[in-house]
Amino acid sequence: MTEHAGLRALLTHLGHVSPQVKWHMAPHMHHEFNELVLVVSGTLEVHIQGQRIQGQTGDLLTYPQHIWHAEQAVGGDPLETLFLAWHWATPHTGISWPLHATDHTGRSRGLMTWMHELFPPTRQEERHMLHVLLDALLFEVGQLAQSRERRMVAQTKAYVHRYMASAFSLDDLAEGVGLSKYHFCREFKKAMGITPMAFVRQVRVEAARSLLLSSSLTLKGIAEQVGFSDEFQLSRVFRRVTGLAPSQVRDGG
Question: CATH homologous superfamily for 163-253?
Fold first, then answer.
């Protein structure tokens, strides 16, 4: 057993899927454990929680306990994976694992490969090392998820600033960061605490505030620069977000 975020993790099993072009698994769920899959080569497509996720070489996919999912190899290249299963030895709440993360550093692959080399353990030292490696692997996957969230938020901010004056939709934002609309909305709100479009409004209002204080542009001119249809929409949204009218900000500045 290992400690992770104050919880004990118990390794259940490890396995390897040798390279196959037409590999697939029908819809199923795991009642007693969580599963982590590393794509060694090829492309693995997973249908889970209303999403279709494609894991490429170096990607990690997590299948939480009691969640239905179906898997299949896609594309022309053979699919090869390493996988392991674990469960928490004590009840827990509030732990969220990424369904999809990318192992940019190669650390996760190294840890999983080492674990597979030690499994099944024949000595106490090997059992202890498996526990240590499992703890390190779960920590690394959690860190990868946080890094992915930071990149997603940074990409969203960059998109909003680049197209500030244009009218764009939620679909455009999701496409800009390479996610489905459903997945993007859920992950963004989890990371930022607000919806993507609420975030867009905040960014636009902040840009309008800056122009109110630093320029002599009319409200209509500011509205055009920050992506509002007219000065009336700008005033309405500005008041809703800040509690002040644009004129109050300009007069105060």
Answer: Homeodomain-like (1.10.10.60)
